[in-house]
TrEMBL record, chain A:
Protein name: ABC transmembrane type-1 domain-containing protein
GO terms, biological process: transmembrane transport
Record Gene3D superfamilies: MetI-like (1.10.3720.10)
TM segment ranges: 39-59, 80-102, 135-157, 184-204, 243-262, 274-296, 302-318, 365-388, 408-435
UniProtKB/TrEMBL annotation, chain B:
PANTHER family: SPERMIDINE/PUTRESCINE IMPORT ATP-BINDING PROTEIN POTA (PTHR42781), SPERMIDINE_PUTRESCINE IMPORT ATP-BINDING PROTEIN POTA (PTHR42781:SF4)
A GO molecular-function descriptor: ABC-type quaternary ammonium compound transporting activity
Keyword ATP-binding part of the UniProt annotation: yes
GO cellular component annotations of the record: ATP-binding cassette (ABC) transporter complex
InterPro entries xrefs: AAA+_ATPase, ABC_SmlMolc_Importer, ABC_transporter-like_ATP-bd, ABC_transporter-like_CS, ABC_transpr_FbpC, Mo/tungstate-bd_C_term_dom, P-loop_NTPase, Transp-assoc_OB_typ2
Species of origin: Limosilactobacillus antri DSM 16041
Entry protein name: ABC-type quaternary amine transporter
All copies of domain ABC transporter, residue ranges: 3-233
Enzyme class: translocase
Keyword Nucleotide-binding: yes
Enzyme Commission code(s) on record: 7.6.2.9
Keywords for the protein's UniProt record, in alphabetical order: ATP-binding, Cell membrane, Ion transport, Iron, Iron transport, Membrane, Nucleotide-binding, Translocase, Transport
Amino acid sequence: MVSPPFVTSLAYINLFGRRGLITYDLLHLAFNPYGPQGIILMQTVSFSSLNALLLISITQRINPGLINSARSLGATPTRILLDVIIPAIKPGIMVVALVSFIRSLADFQTPTIIGGSYQVLASAGYYAMISMGNLHLAALINITLAIPAIIGFFIYIHYNRSLTMLQHGLVDNQRELILPKRGLLWYSSTLVSVIFYLVLVLQYGSIFLNAITEQRWGHYYFSLGPIEQTAFFISPEIIGRTIGYSIIAGFLGSLISFLIVYYHQVHHSQLMKLLEMVGTLPYILPGTFFGLGYLYAFSTKPLILTGTATIVIINLIFKQVAFATKAANAVVTQVPTTYFKSIYDLGGSTIAEWRDVFFPLTKRGFALTFLNGFISTMTTIGSIIFLVHPGQELLTLVMFDVVQQNEYQVASVIACFIILICLIVAGIVIALINLTERNRSHVF
Amino acid sequence: MFFEVKDLNKKYHHQEIIHRLSFAIDKGEILIVLGPSGCGKSTLLSCINGFEKVNGGQILLEQQDITTLPPEERNVSTVFQTYSLFPNMTVRQNLAYGLKFQKLGKSQRDQLVNKMISLLQLESIADMSVTEISGGQQQRVALGRSLIIRPKLLLLDEPFSNLDANLRLRLRRELRRVQQQLKMTMIFVTHDQQEAFALGDKILLINDGRLQQLATGTEIYDEPANQFVLKFVGTVNWLGQSRYLRPENITLTPDPHGEGIITQAVFQGPTIDYQVNLHRHTYQVTCLNRGHRFNVNERVTISYHEKELGKEL
């Protein structure tokens, strides 16, 4: 999740390409990795992490008393999984399936890199714009893409509502979901988990190895050559620009989202409720759809922003609003409304409300939303690919270009850079949150 | 004995929660486990139903050692405090759930479910989702779901604690009726003393994980084994040197020259609680609400029947 979305494709080529580590070096096979099977496989692996996180958080909301009740009635672990857990998280499974469907529709990078001659709508839209310069064809293709995405979104809303019904009745204090670790389903899911972990280790291991080794006479040697070569493609300016845009988009995106949610939840503003819904659109529609939209909207008077950094930053900020409002909602609904009423009761104003209650109590959520926005911007490509002009490149765009030029080692180095930056910033933000919470731990 | 616990020990992170607890009950009895919050009542239940591992001792059900068996193999069923009905199932489906693991035919299962619906008067809600029924109805469904599988032992962990007073009374009577009809052996955890006296054939009073007294309600109230039992159950006027008075055993007589002075009067409906100062000692007194009421600062004469821990004076 801290790496560009097409890193899996890069790893796939490193491992299973025509001169891949596994297919060529280990198994001496002449294997053609390109085509639909590679696209489906890589998108599945790529989306699994976020899907797993979502399903884990949904499963953790199941009342553990249900498990104990079922065991008390004689149910085995396998039956509990089939009769209690899976029905309970079915809306969650539908939600992650729909999110994966929508993301897959919008993904042009994976088909471009490993689709070979197999084209999908998203990659066709990309080529229409970049190779043919045909804005209108690109727009038409993106509208076509948007239709199933919007239908999928309405189905997603329906199942998302069902998720709030998950906890019925009273809730146990016990937090752990205790299921005995035995039975056919337990062993099967353990096996699948182990395979998944191995795939991830292979994936990132191959990227890392590719960044610090060179192959000579059929053997791999440690080398700084790929890193030195990367210096021709990226500069401190590109790195600084990428980090700068990410900080701005993360911060402003979070701020706008929290303010929208504040006015909606605390002051019950219908306008803000509408804005919250509209703000979800960048989440469901392909990034290229928005990129083209920005091109159309800001290429004529009175607002000519094409070719500027502003249009890129605006796009990035509002892309964050979609996710950030959801996160902000989850945080703000935990703050009892009586806190806000107390401020006015004691003679305070809106400023006092923000300063003394709203932001202090949502600080942690804000920091995490910022972090998500930062990482998302560091790894984004779809929404900005049509907006960034020469001289304004970001790391992901450079990485995408070098992959298309078959400079896989350079791409691996850039991927490592991006991951490292994201991890460092994540570490700083989490450390700051923990430090703040520890300093106040004596306050009741 | 039908069910026995012998020298049960349970620790959490080196802290002893239950200490060498032993007791036994006969088939068809209701045992109430009573005690203050944090005394180990729910932990005891968790050891009996298998959701907690014990650190020592034995649990025997019909002479079979079930100490280390997993919950689904113990033939012990639990009605949890939070009911934990399956939200994706109807009332009927919740009731039928446990029967799936008993190798019964469909018609037999349906018959048992219909009988339970009738027994607990759930006809009007049988095909409703459990998310649509009231708290009291959920409680009856939770009870029925455990009873239908005919466990050898039924455990109830404060099942009525989330209900209002009237509903609690009604469900208490219903539980007694059902228990007597099915001759079910039950262990019922509560911190409500009235509930304990109303329901239990025997009461197991524990404190800090240790047995204080195992006896009938009458014995516990009239012949408490120690000071903890005396002071936990009901109200007491402690006179020192093992002598005590129950508030209802003090009689107040209006007397303008009496040495007792009423300092507080609290109306409780069927009774009135007074505080009386006499010879620099304050007595708690409970009188039946029979029309006459004493006012604060009124003088009275008091007479009483003293008791001593372990014997009667």
